[in-house]
Specification:
This protein folds into 2 domains: 2-123 and 296-321, ATPase, nucleotide binding domain (Nucleotidyltransferase, domain 5, 2-Layer Sandwich), CATH 3.30.420.40; 131-292, ATPase, nucleotide binding domain (Nucleotidyltransferase, domain 5, 2-Layer Sandwich), CATH 3.30.420.40. It contains 10 helices and 10 strands. α4 crosses α5. The chain is globular, with a radius of gyration of 20 Å. The chain is α/β, with parallel strands linked by helices and 334 residues long. The strands form 2 sheets. Strands 3-2-1-4-5 form a 5-stranded mixed beta sheet, sandwiched between helices. It has a 5-stranded mixed beta sheet with strand order 8-7-6-9-10, with helices on both faces.
């Protein structure tokens, strides 16, 4: 089954075609991260205008790469939210138009379910359920207990800021460019991760929730204290700050494992899952369980391949998705 995916929730314009939820035939992406580097973040109105500019060229590029026409497409999956309203409208209107013109079924996909489904792109072995999935990006930090691709329960989420946002805001405090995750990771490579003792949020609680506001405030105060020589301490601050974020994520997964001993695998997805230090820590902390990460770094950040995969799983598991899937107010299958 070939599913064409459309992802325009933020500043990436992406269209992909995925076969049977795993085999990526094409994954065309136009990103504007460099454009928004000067502003220190995405400007919603500008992002929407660029979505309009890129959507057709990206579509043509995807079809050409896959060497397919709409006669070969069995369904269309599109991100329906959450995200920037203007950007989402571009993608949903494009997908609805293609669905109507070519008489192809349309499946609306929650952005988070897309990230959860990114784990299976280019994977050929059978998934083991139940599993835990840590989904971390600029907009969310969640832990899901999953019984299948589309059936799961949210057992932990952030009480304030998302991990990706903590990276972006931390980078700005240190004078590093946007996006903050890669900038801090690069700076941290030459730093001492134990140089500064930053707090790990909610460390006194046995919880699967996250909190990064206290950590951000601690970095702000430390940066102000060392303002005169901030540049010379930049790498140490970046390494110590990154370590505090990664350790909190790891501690919450360890807590979840202890609460749900029946799980068979641990997955990590979302933009922050590209962080090398996080992968190192989790690989050790989840043993003897297997840690699954996206097969390519391009599947960590926003992309249409994950949306196509999610749409495929929603179609094949519709008997579950229509009843008990993701029993939370933030359902990903409505």
């Amino acid at each position: 089954m070939n599913v064409l995916g459309v992802e325009t929730s933020c500043d990436e314009t992406s269209i992909a075609i995925v076969q049977d939820g795993a085999r990526v035939l094409c994954n065309s992406i136009a990103s504007t991260q460099d454009v928004f580097a000067d502003s220190g973040g995405v400007v919603p109105e500008d992002a929407a205008r660029r979505q309009v500019e890129f959507i057709l060229p990206v579509l043509h590029s995807a079809l050409a790469e896959a060497q397919l026409s709409f006669d070969n497409i069995d369904a269309i999956g599109v991100t329906k939210g959450p995200g920037l309203m203007g950007s989402l409208l571009v993608g949903t209107m494009a997908a609805r138009t293609l669905s109507y013109v070519h008489n192809i079924p349309l499946i609306g996909v929650h952005h988070t379910l897309g990230h959860l489904s990114s784990i299976w792109l280019e994977q050929t072995d059978t998934p083991l359920f139940p599993c835990l999935t840590l989904s971390v990006s600029g907009g969310h930090s969640d832990i899901w207990l999953r019984q299948s691709h589309t059936n799961g329960i949210l057992i932990g989420s952030t009480r304030d800021d998302a991990a990706g946002e903590a990276f972006d805001k931390g980078a700005a405090m240190l004078g590093l460019p946007y996006p903050g995750g890669p900038s801090i990771a690069q700076s941290a490579e030459s730093g001492d991760l134990s140089a500064f003792n930053f707090p790990i949020g909610l460390s006194q609680e046995k919880t699967c929730d996250f909190s990064f506001s206290g950590l951000k405030n601690s970095l702000r105060l430390t940066a102000q204290k060392h303002a005169s020589n901030l540049k010379s301490l930049q790498a140490d601050l970046a390494a110590s700050y990154q370590e505090a974020i990664c350790l909190q994520l790891s501690h919450r997964i360890e807590c979840a494992i202890s609460l749900y001993p029946e799980i068979k695998e641990v997955h990590v997805a979302g933009g922050v899952s590209a962080n090398t230090r996080l992968r190192e820590i989790l690989s050790s902390s989840v043993q003897p369980l297997r840690l699954r990460t996206p097969a390519a770094l391009s599947y960590c950040t926003d992309n249409a391949a994950m949306i196509a995969a999610a749409a495929y799983f929603m179609h094949t598991e519709k008997h579950e998705a229509s009843t008990k899937a993701f029993e939370t107010a933030a359902t990903v299958t409505d």
